[in-house]
Amino acid sequence: MNNFLFVAAENDAIPKCKAGGMGDVVRDVPRQISRKGDSAHIVVPAYSRLHKDGVFLMHLNFQLRGQDYTAELYRVQPKKDFENLTHYVIHHPEIQPGDIAHIYHNDPTEPFFNDAVKYFIFCTAVAEAVNQNAFGDLDIVHLHDWHSSLLLFLRKYHPSYEKLKQLRFVYTIHNLAIQGIRPFGGNYSSIQNFFPEIPIDYDNLRDHRYWDCINLMAVGVRLADAVHTVSPSYKEDILVPSNPPDFIGGESLEADLQNADLEGRLFGILNGSNYNNIRAAEKGRLYRNIIRALFGWLQEESKKYKYDFLAHTGEKIMDYVEHKPDFIVSSVARLTEQKFYYIKHSPEAFIKILEKLAKVNGVFMLLGTGAPEYEEMFREISYKHKNFIFTNGQSEDLIDSIYLESDLYFMPSLFEPCGISQMLAMRNGHPCLVHHTGGLKDTVQHLKTGFSFDGTTTDEKIRNMVDSFDLVLDIFLNDKPQWKKIKANAKKERFTWDKSVDEYYKFLYAITI
Fold first, then answer.
1. What residues contact 35, with CB distance under 8 A and at least 6 apart?
2. Domain with CATH 3.40.50.2000 in the chain
3. How confident is the model at residue 414 (pLDDT cuts 50, 70, 90)?
4. Spatial distance between the Cα atoms of 74 and 52, rounded to a whole number of angstroms
5. Record's superkingdom (predicted)?
């Protein structure tokens, strides 16, 4: 039996520990490992809340900033029990929840300041837990994004954690654009402040653009035994320099990634989706679930600043309770540049889509929270367009209903490492309209399982996005046999974790199964 340790910032196998797709992967991959008869331990930060119903296991004592630190390791109960899987959280007072999903901090004036502090502490505590054999005799450590890459820094440079050198380290890139860049020194949230006893290897650690900074995403790429992107096409994208906004590629790390590829350490393996034991929504509850979610948010102190908008959305929904639309387009996403740059760049293009929908008694439903400027833009559009229903919050019940009852899922991502939303929509038999990039290339086939748009410049892509939407409506209204065929093909697609994890074992874990 092989013994794995997963280290990440999110884990959707436990309640209230998800902000994005990473949480799904960290939930699903260990479950597939369990089915193969191996064991896995999954550890995330407690964010000052996730440990409260857990079982205390041990104190973890270590040195940071030349001072004694003590963190606490807890075992926590998952949403579902699986054999040979154990879930943990690490608590320390400085590992604070952020304003994004109560996990990450949005630090606009000094990016990654708060997050670097908590993940420096978290990763050092994990290293100490490995030293104390808290997870048993490990074979593989699987790290996810920059939040966990400090373990590779500790493995290479910290004399107290020589034990880490005995283990194989795999590093998964979920989003290359978020790199965890911090100053080497002269700052509380700097590597020299937290590890003053370690001489800094500037050449191996520095960011290519900011030579006075460490790049923690680059640390993962440079120091891991295997590096993994979450789709084959995203791997190809990031080997090429970015030319924003027309093309998002290696984001200054393409040389490091090319080197990893030449060394046989870089692999592109598509994420899977869950097709068993699905949390199924009940048909016909979409508008009811919107109203229920709105009433819940209206009672939250943190939502008072958008109280008027939530009430406006509720009033708008009541018309659709009695008079159902004939076509529902939906998106469920973090409101960020990655997901909605094209709409921010050209709101008039989105308004054209809303006007086209209005002519066929169609609505556009968007659910999400995120960057303030994106939330504000969508709220303003909602006030002006009756058929744009913007639910500015998070609700699992409502998300399930949206995936179940939409006719088209819209995903115009500027770039997409993999994407899970399109898989969930297709699982329900709904075609997607996507930008032909990254993992969306690997999952949506134009006019076979869905629709896609592309172009050589941003303006051309936006024009093609609107033209592709015209094509969608034309087929839906005028060619029902083709529409039904595309729907059926979408529903038949299977992006299984069984296949993906077999490739993990072969390429990432270097284990014969």
1. none
2. 3-272+498-508, 285-494
3. very high
4. 9
5. Bacteria
Q: How confident is the model at residue 142 (pLDDT cuts 50, 70, 90)?
A: very high
Contact 148, 23 (CB under 8 A): no
Closest CA to 49 of 16, 82, 20: 16
Through-space distance between the first and last CA atoms of the chain, rounded to whole angstroms: 11
Average pLDDT in the 164-174 region? 97
Tens-place pLDDT, residues 45-69: 999 999 999 999 999 999 999 999 9
Task: Note whether 344 and 350 are within 8 A (CB).
Answer: no
- Domain 285-494 CATH (choose: 3.60.10.10, 3.40.50.2300, 3.40.50.2000, 3.40.50.170): 3.40.50.2000
Q: Which one, of 407, 172, 194, 336, lies nearest residue 270 by Cα?
A: 172
d(CA 91, CA 73): 7
Q: What's the 3-state SS for 144-171?
A: ECHHHCHHHHHHHHCHHHHHHHHCEEEE
The whole-number pLDDT of residue 469 equals 98
Q: Is the peptide bond before 417 cis (omega within 30 degrees of 0)?
A: no
Written as six digits, the tokens of 257 are 């990634």
390-418 burial: b if 16+ Cβ within 10 Å, else e: bbbbbbebbbbbbbbbbbbbbbbbbbbbb
What would the mean pLDDT of 71-76 be, rounded to a whole number? Answer: 98
Name the class of domain 3-272+498-508.
alpha beta
Q: pLDDT tens for residues 109-140?
A: 899 999 999 999 999 999 999 999 999 999 99
Concatenate the DSSP letters of all residues of 81-150 into one string.
--TTEEEEEEE-TT----SBTTTB---SSSTTHHHHHHHHHHHHHHHHHHHTTTT-S-SEEEEESGGGTH
